[in-house]
Amino acid sequence: NAGVTQTPKFRVLKTGQSMTLLCAQDMNHEYMYWYRQDPGMGLRLIHYSVGEGTTAKGEVPDGYNVSRLKKQNFLLGLESAAPSQTSVYFCASRHDGSGNTIYFGEGSWLTVV
Amino acid sequence: AQSVSQHNHHVILSEAASLELGCNYSYGGTVNLFWYVQYPGQHLQLLLKYFSGDPLVKGIKGFEAEFIKSKFSFNLRKPSVQWSDTAEYFCAVYNTNAGKSTFGDGTTLTVKP
Fold this sequence. Notes:
The complex is a heterodimer.
Chain A: E1 4-7, E2 10-13, E3 19-25, E4 31-38, E5 42-51, E6 54-57, E7 65-67, E8 73-78, E9 87-94, E10 103-104, E11 108-112
Parallel strand pairs in A: 2-11
Antiparallel strand pairs in A: 1-3, 3-8, 4-5, 4-9, 5-6, 7-8, 9-10, 9-11
Chain B: E1 4-5, E2 10-14, E3 19-21, E4 24-25, E5 31-38, E6 45-50, E7 56-58, E8 64-68, E9 73-78, E10 87-95, E11 100-103, E12 107-112
Parallel strand pairs in B: 2-12
Antiparallel strand pairs in B: 1-4, 3-9, 5-6, 5-10, 7-8, 8-9, 10-11, 10-12
């Protein structure tokens, strides 16, 4: 049971480049989330999804897009990376019936130069 | 808007000292409460959670937290910390009506041997 898996774990981008972070969960969870973690700012929700084919904006959605074409996958896209998007990105998922515990991936370290 | 406040950004303790990390939230409705821990270089993991019942909950590694509804607080405690408790600790509140989680900014705990 792999839980929540994020790829890639590390990436360096040039300003203006695009990339996609992939999150996969094998727990059949309905809800999936993308957070970014910055020093002194805790975890901030970027986008989330309550089920396959649905997405919604979180606290800091600008500059990001997401897709949930399959229940087990939640993709986070940066169309034109900016240095302000240098951060650690965490994917998370939860099952509505599990008592709302969120399970986190290991994080993806992204640097935009 | 729902918010979570962790009062201490950085706490430094010696081994065997007692620990209490404060967490207050602003939402007045039904909530589930969590403490997550992130050890250096590792991903977030659940420390303990409160849904209902006994307001004193016990988690892994000797941690406990007490839910005081009148104070909107969920403080984390440990009677005697160890060097291995050095980590970042996040308090989180799940709003059962809105179906959304809000995290505090995190508290970095450094335990000196």
